[in-house]
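Help! Submission page says 'invalid entity' but I think these are all valid:
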Amino acid sequence: MSAIPTPNLSAYPELDTPARLLFGPGPSMVHPRVTRAMTVPVVGYMDPLFLDILTKTADLLRYTFQTENRLTLTVSGTGTAGMEAAIANLVEPGDSVLAFAKGYFGLRLAEMARRYGGNVETITKTWGEAFAPHEIKAALDRRPAKVVTIVHAETSTGVCQPLDEIARIVHDQGGLLIVDAVTSLGGVPLKVDELGIDVCYSGTQKCLGCPPGLGLITVSPRAEEKLNARKSAVPNFFLDLALLQKYWGSERVYHHTASMPMHYGFYEGLRMVVEEGLENRWARHRKNAETLWKGLADLDLTLHVPHDIRLVTLTTVRIPDGVDEAQIRQRLMQDYNIEIGAGLGDLKGKVWRIGLMGYSSREENVLLLLAALEKLLHK
Amino acid sequence: MSAIPTPNLSAYPELDTPARLLFGPGPSMVHPRVTRAMTVPVVGYMDPLFLDILTKTADLLRYTFQTENRLTLTVSGTGTAGMEAAIANLVEPGDSVLAFAKGYFGLRLAEMARRYGGNVETITKTWGEAFAPHEIKAALDRRPAKVVTIVHAETSTGVCQPLDEIARIVHDQGGLLIVDAVTSLGGVPLKVDELGIDVCYSGTQKCLGCPPGLGLITVSPRAEEKLNARKSAVPNFFLDLALLQKYWGSERVYHHTASMPMHYGFYEGLRMVVEEGLENRWARHRKNAETLWKGLADLDLTLHVPHDIRLVTLTTVRIPDGVDEAQIRQRLMQDYNIEIGAGLGDLKGKVWRIGLMGYSSREENVLLLLAALEKLLHK
């Protein structure tokens, strides 16, 4: 077999990507302070200075999740790795699982639970609606489940699932509740302990002003009991929470080499959550979303989700009749360096997805986006 | 349940870690060009500019692995995620697996294969030795295996496993060969196609001058056939290579949000591999290792591994009688900002582990390390 030739470097030039305005479903724009923190020199994964950063990160993450859960940490990966960590650890082969799916990510939870051997039933709903507590209860009365999954902020539809009462219903029949908070954590009111959520996961790249690269997860004592009572090892070694906790906790047993730049950036991002205050942050996301919604209505555009369950961090806008949705997105990018998202799954070709998350959620961004849309749609 | 109080920011100060000299088992030091590349603005995961970077990365990674394998990509995670991707995809429940383990990471491969339902037998060897081809053949003659695992550069022992003939032996009895190249790729001669390796994985943070954050993997057409013939879905959704290839390949189907800063940095790191040339890079790692070894001998220190199978990227040094090994490591860090590694597993307390990888492998680093060791050991 012949040797592989050396590539010609002229075909692989230095990076030169422009500063896009990211108003899609994520990643959102990275705060400059986070980018700067990522350039802090890399140290070893057992360096006391780095271990101290991990401990502080867990503290600040507990505040952000509004939880006292001991088992609160990050996984090396992205929000999807957080989802996988939740399922891989909580679902044992044969466990009955009820997946409430009202969009793409709800279905993905069901798919993952099946892969880990769960006995999964999926309850679906039209993309753009939310589940009512009595629907959750009726489904569980009919078919009890050890694990129930639901998405708080469904990135594919722009729906914010109300979470009141759900954990109580799930607990009353002996199950555990897993909640996907990828597109809500830090942008939408979410209090893990008050809501009684057992496992909640998220990512860094949506409402926290950081780049993608870490999954975030918190696990209640009740869910920890299930982990401790597992009959089989977690098939997924890389995301085995018991092994990860031995590194994050006082034992400091090596598991894998953490990504220092990602941790540096995320720590800075969490510091900024504390500086702003969670309530203020939630209010900022709502205020900018309301400005966007009013502006879109003024452009005669129709929002896909009713106001009471509409997600402030991601808005789905119906494509007007006669408009080439892909062309508008292309022109936004070419003419103004603006990214918005296409529809996904059932809503493909039917909506645009506009995200205002983290550092992207600023009034000047809303004004620019509305002005650009007006030019392209009403020229 | 009461609300979680806002942390006091004074307990969570801005990052202030010093620029350590990283001569441990990894991470190694990050090249400044890589750090700078990581600050390039984040764009969307479907942005044509980003997809182009992925395509170019796969090209440069093929050169680095010395392979023409179509299925060559990165996973979001670290080297351990690369290991997990190899096992999760290649080992189906009931598959017979032979794991040749001469150190910590060889044992970890066996552990992962068991978790994915493999029928695993582990052939062990004293930590500090390598397997001979006739030993591999004898084990396979006794117990054929669909999957054989072996570590090229065993980070726990400092042994470089010769790989000639092994793939042929494995193929002759119908199996596939998985090789761990975490501590060798880019630092030690390794030609995946010429050696006939079926699955090879590595990480960014050892010999490639990048921070941790991506796992690297390449899969031969022969191994792809096994993937395509799987009877069950890969349990691990996040690391399912078929789904990842649909994003990396021409279909561009969303799987998860890639970490742009990690990809930016890695692309720059790979460009530097091409600039230097693989052969020159291998020669640099050897030259600096030989300088280190001579200097350590001059300090009356004994190396744990014989010269013919000694790894140039990671050297294990026996702790001299009467020396407090932890105290020396602490003083190196406190007095000179130098990190070296402790022994792991069977070699805990018996050796130091000195890494000279990627950007850490420079002559000035060797001189400084030797001078510091001389001061501490022969004061």
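Support: the input was valid. A stray whitespace character was the problem, and the output above is from the cleaned input. Chain A touches chain B through 96 residues (CB under 8 Å).
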